[in-house]
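During the reporting period the student researcher (J.K.) took over the structure-prediction task from the postdoctoral fellow and processed the backlog of single-chain submissions. One of the processed entries is reproduced below for the supervisory committee.
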Amino acid sequence: MTETAPPSLPHALRVVHLPARTPYARKLHGQDIRILNETTIRPGATVPAAVNAAWLLAHTPLNWLDALHLHHIDMEDLSTLERLLDACATSDVRVVFTAHDTRPMYGNTAEFTDRLRLLLSANVQWVGLTENSLTELAGLLGTRPPATVIPHGYVAPPDTLLRRAREQGSGARFLMYGASRPSRDQLSPVINWSLGVTDPASTLRLLLRAFSPADFTPDSRVPLLLDTARHDPRIRLSMHPYPTDDDVIDAGLTSDVLLLPYLWGSHSGQLELAFDLNLLPVCSRTGHLPEQHRQHQGLVGEPEWFDWSTGHPNLFGERFLTAVENATARLAAAPRRLDRTFLDYRTEEHKAILTAYAQIYGSGR
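J.K. obtained the following C-alpha cells:
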C-alpha cells in the first residue's frame, strides 16, 4: 500500500532500499529508521518497492533521503551505478551495501567484480552477513572492504508467529518455493522426489513466482518441470505474481521440510525462514550457509546437508535423494512444532540488528 511519508522526526533516518521487495529489507525499520520505498516523497513521486538507479537519478537532488541501502547490483550497469554514487555524494547521502552474494546471480564474474571495485573506491559502508563471506570478498578484491558483520536475522516476524501453530499432517510434507534462478535446480529435485519418495501420504508443494519470457529459452527446463508435477498427484503447484510474506508463511506452516537445492550460493534467506518455522532444511552445503547455521549457537537443529559443490555432477541426484530419505527418518523420530524459545531469541536478535543499522545509516551525521 502506498502512503505519504510524514515529516520525519529529527532522529529518524530516511532510508531507500534498492530494492525493498524482500523481507530482509522491509524489516529494517523502527523508531530511528524510516523506509521510504512505497511512500510518496513529493506530489507525483512515489518511491517504487523495486526502485532502481535510473529512478533515483531521475529524482535528484537526493536531499529527501539520508541513506541508500544497496542489496543487489547485478542489474545496474557500471556507468549508471557510478552516477548514482556521485549523486549520493553530492547530496550527502550515506551509501550502505550488503554483500548478500560473493558471485553474481546474473551476468558474469568480471562485471560483478567491476561493480564491487566501484563500491570499494567510493565512500560506501559494506555489510557482510557472515565473517567468512567478507574473507572471500577480500580474496576476490585484493583487500578487505570496510565492512561490519550483521547477520541476516528473521524472515517471518516473531510476533506474527506467536499467534500461529504448525498444522500437523499424516505424511512428510515437503516445500520448495521461489523464482527460477541459475543458482538452484528445480527440475532434478522434483523428479527425484516423485520417483524416490514412495509414501502415498507424502506431499510436495511447489510455490512458484510467475514465469517470464526469459524462463523459456530454447533449453528451458520449465516445461519438463511442469509436466513432471502434473503427473504426480502428490505434487501441488501454486503460482503467484510475487508470493507475499503471508503466502510463504502459510505454506511453511503446512509443511515439515524445506528443500533448498542450491547449485551455488553465498547466503540464504530461505534457510533463515526454515529456522523461524522450525522446518527441517534439506540444504545444499554451499557458500556460507553452514556459518549461517552456526550463528544461532545451537538454538536450531542441524540441517540435512548434501554437497553439490564438489565431485562428479552425476552423483548430485544420489546425494539429494539420500538427504531426503534421512530427513524423512528424522521427521518420523520427532514431530516439529514452532519453537517459542527461538522466536524470543529472534526478537532480541532483531533489536541488535536495528541498532547496528541505525549506527551505520547515521554514521558521520
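The committee noted the following: The longest helix spans residues 340-361.
J.K. will present the remaining backlog at the next meeting.
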